[in-house]
Amino acid sequence: MKQYLALCQRIIDEGQWVENERTGKRCLTLINADLEYDVANNQFPLITTRKSFWKAAIAEFLGYIRGFDNAADFRQLGTKTWDANANDNQAWLNNPARKGPDDMGRVYGVQGRSWQKPDGSGFDQLAKIVDNLSNKKDDRGEILTFYNPGEFDLGCLRPCMHTHTFSLLGDTLYLTSYQRSCDVPLGLNFNQIQVFTFLALMAQITGNKAGKAYHKIVNAHIYEDQLPMMRDVQLKREPFPSPQLNINPDIKSLKDLETWVTMDDFEVVGYQHHDPIKYPFAV
Ligand SMILES: Nc1nc(=O)c2c([nH]1)NC[C@@H]1CN(c3ccc(C(=O)N[C@@H](CCC(=O)O)C(=O)O)cc3)CN21
Ligand SMILES: O=c1ccn([C@H]2C[C@H](O)[C@@H](COP(=O)(O)O)O2)c(=O)[nH]1
User: Fold this and answer.
1) How many CB atoms lie within 10 A of CB 51?
2) C-beta of 142 in contact with ligand 1 (< 6 A)
3) In ligand 1, which atom is closest to the CA atom of 189?
4) Rounded mean pLDDT of 156-172?
5) What gap in Å lies between CA 157 and CA 148, rounded to an integer?
6) Three-state secondary structure call for residue 249
7) DSSP alpha helices (H): ranges in the chain?
């Protein structure tokens, strides 16, 4: 939690104002941030200086694991986070590749589970990684990437947290996640949870121990309409200790994640937090 607050403060102290054409909003921007999560000791990086809707963050990531391309499927899992980008973004509404309401196109999980090969068939990046790690194999290329520039015009948004690299040392699993663009008040609250939970889940289903997760961010920003609440409200609050995340131990395979897992299989214990803050969302 302290590293999150330190990053927010660093953006305020050292950030530069940058115009953003896509959203029409200026952002206070900092380049390069490194965050670390202690998954081995279950130090769940949940924001405590406001109430975090952590189940929505896990639901969003489970949707990526399942290869969803539709905001309605995300809603059914428990998150509305893709509604605006799928349905309120004029550039995407005008795009002939959009298949209809709620369609997100070839984003995130579509690339992760069925990257299109030259012969037209799909390559399942995640299944390959799960197979190797389950056999204690790390080929130094256990990389899941959602970043496919050749298909950007077929999706509603380019992936922000775009690449996840797994590494095995003995039977301890590590994760390094890369993010090109980070909405620190809203997105990072979710992305921290997702990096942590992804490593915990992958360790569990591949029979390894979870080590640390490393989260590398390039462009970290606060939108101009979010700044007063961050600077004058959230940063004035004292953080509470980290809670813990409990995952149903019956989750044992990628198939389990694809089929029966719901948000009821995740529990947070010891979550002390301040009141919610509703930050504006830029579409
Ligand atoms: N501008 C922007 N920021 C983002 O963080 C972001 C995007 N766009 N587009 C794609 C996804 C969608 N994400 C989202 C979308 C909405 C919330 C959000 O509204 N969070 C609220 C409440 C969530 C709830 O009630 O479930 C929050 O207070 O955290 C968070 C992340 C993250 N990404
Ligand atoms: O997981 C996510 C997804 C999105 N974001 C934020 C980062 C930016 O504020 C926008 C995306 O805008 P681009 O113009 O495509 O950079 O969404 C995030 O923080 N985390």
Assistant:
1) 14
2) no
3) 29
4) 98
5) 12
6) coil
7) 2-14, 54-65, 71-77, 83-87, 90-93, 108-114, 125-134, 187-206, 227-232, 254-259
Report d(CA 61, CA 46) in Å as an integer.
15
Per the annotation, the verdict on 160 as an active-site residue is yes
State both tokens at 3. 């590293």
Amino acid identity of 32?
N
Distance between CA 30 and CA 12 in Å, rounded? 9
Catalytic-labelled residue, pool 8, 27, 156, 160: 160
pTM over 0.90: yes
Rounded distance between C-alpha atoms, residue 104 and residue 85, angstroms: 8
180 a known binding residue?
A: yes
Cβ–Cβ < 8 Å for 223, 27: yes
Ligand 1 pocket member 192 (CB < 6 A) = no
DSSP 145: E
Q: Yes or no: say if 161 and 213 are a contact pair by the CB < 8 Å rule.
A: no
Return left, alpha or beta for 7; rule: phi > 0 is left, psi -120 to 50 is alpha, else beta.
alpha
**Distance of CA 81 from the midpoint of ligand 1 (Å):** 5
128: Cβ below 6 Å to ligand 2? no
Residue 1 confidence (pLDDT): 77
What number is the ipTM of this complex?
0.98
The residue assigned the tokens 């279950």 is 42
Question: Given this model, what pLDDT does residue 207 score?
Answer: 98
Question: What's the CA gap between 10 and 49, in Å, rounded?
Answer: 17
pLDDT digits (tens, 9 = 90+) for 35-51: 999 999 999 999 999 99
At 55 the pLDDT is 98
Ligand approaching nearest to the C-alpha of 183: 2
- Ligand 2 close to Cβ of residue 160 (< 6 A): yes
Q: Is 96 exposed, middle or buried (0-12, 13-18, 19+ CB in 10 A)?
A: exposed
pLDDT of 131 reads 98
DSSP state of 265: G
